[in-house]
Fold this sequence. Notes:
Elements: E1 14-19, E2 23-28, H1 29-37
Antiparallel strand pairs: 1-2
Zinc ion binds near residues 6, 9, 27 and 31.
Amino acid sequence: xxxxxxxxxxxxxxxxxxxxxxxxxxxxxxxxxxxxxxxxxxxxxxxxxxxx
Length: 52
Ligand SMILES: [Zn+2]
């Protein structure tokens, strides 16, 4: 997989992110930032438990 799962862009460095609805995906930094700001990424990877 060498393309962003969100915008489909190729030839960019991809970041692993855990999307709240789509699960683990590879996305470019731009989309990562966007999803991050939209609060669509799951935080605290490696830890289980609620984030309330
Ligand atoms: Zn993207």
